[in-house]
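#struct-help
A.M.: can someone run this one for me? Single chain, 471 residues.
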Amino acid sequence: MATTPRPRPRVLILGGGLSGTLAAAALAPYSDTIDIVERHALPDTPQPRRGLPQARHAHMLWSGGADAIESLLPGTTEMWLSANARRVSIPNGMISLSPGGWYRRCWPEAQYLISASRDLIDWAVRAQALALPGVRLRSEAEPVRLLGTRTRITGAAIRHKDGSEESIEADLIVDATGRASRAPSWLAELGIPAVPETIVDAGVTYASRRYKAPVETAGWPVINVQADARLAGPGTAGSILPIEGDEWMVVLSGTRGGEPTSEEAQFVTFARQMRSPLIAEYLDRATPLGPVSVTRNTTNRRRHYEKAHIEGFIALGDSATALNPIYAHGMSAAAQGARALRDLASKSDVTSKGFARRAQRAISRPAAAAWLLAVSQDACFPHAVGGTRTWADRLATRYINRLITTACSDFTAVQALSDVMTLQTSGASLAHPRVVLAAVRGPRLPPLSGPALTPAEEAVLRGRPVPTTTA
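D.P.: on it. Structure tokens below:
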């Protein structure tokens, strides 16, 4: 006698941004239906959408994140590149001033990054994920509370645009609503104890502005002036990212006491006062395309859901681990978390006892790696809140600084740091004997006196400055 096939799980995802659509991609092969609840309408093309103010700022997708997305949604990278996103080689595709000096650009590719507008990055992922069987988008609907008991979450109540409410039952609920997640209060309403939370805040403010580049941006490098936490006073930094449309997305940042402002006339002035005026010199040759956008919400906040015992509920992306955006690890950590979720779901039924906790632990591993990179830097700046530094932390910082200085003239150090920064390996790889030996040996060549520019890059600086008024 034939047995009736067991129905596959139903998944409810709260939030239709990058983390939410990646969660859908991760779970679609193992679910009958996936409902994505999103507060705002989502565009069908790469254009701005409501509810994503950070899209006005610069974004980089490190290779660790890009590879994770490609494994979840094959063909996404080609969609980005076909829409003129830029694939930038590391380190030879970067003009970068580290705390240890200017990087050389004579090495083979160690890693890469994808540079594009956030609208383009999200659009390609969204288009791919929503085309998967069983994935449904419920836009202009807002989650208002979770349903369930102290031991298991069973769904969520959502409010539609017309004010009506609907209860949606599901076997697994994924919170992907971002930094502003209300899940902690919703869980508390069900009598679930608060999860531990860690906060480290360096008081970073960052400002972004789009420019029309004076050259085609295909093949143009990322220009990066990093902060040096060893110097007295606030840490200031900046980057020029080549994006689609032959534009530059420019971001400037500063810790407490050295913050950039939204004043357009001060944007280039701020860049000129950093450790190198190179970014300002390039902006003198570019044309602003809009106002300066400023963000102060840069606190590193980690909710340790992996320590909780909540069946049927997981949090992904900024809902669980929100990182200082200036290090550009948020998207990559979320993508790797989604891939870890996919890998677990391929081995274990999402309705099985303990699945949510195992999934949260798997998601937390790449998030923890990105967290350590962010807080180890932020905790060093003056007036940082949280992140008490021990003698071991200080010793590790001295070692990393030595490795950074060595990387200016040693490919072994470049490769090791690039692998960690792009989230391709964990920080533990920096303790490999080969890497330690490179750090002990130190720089092999004298430091560069200035940036290693190509003739084409130098030619732009010799060009005529353009007006700095908004186009």
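A.M.: thanks! The chain has a mean pLDDT of 92.
D.P.: also worth noting: Residues 10-59+118-199+299-376 form a domain with the FAD/NAD(P)-binding domain fold (CATH 3.50.50.60).
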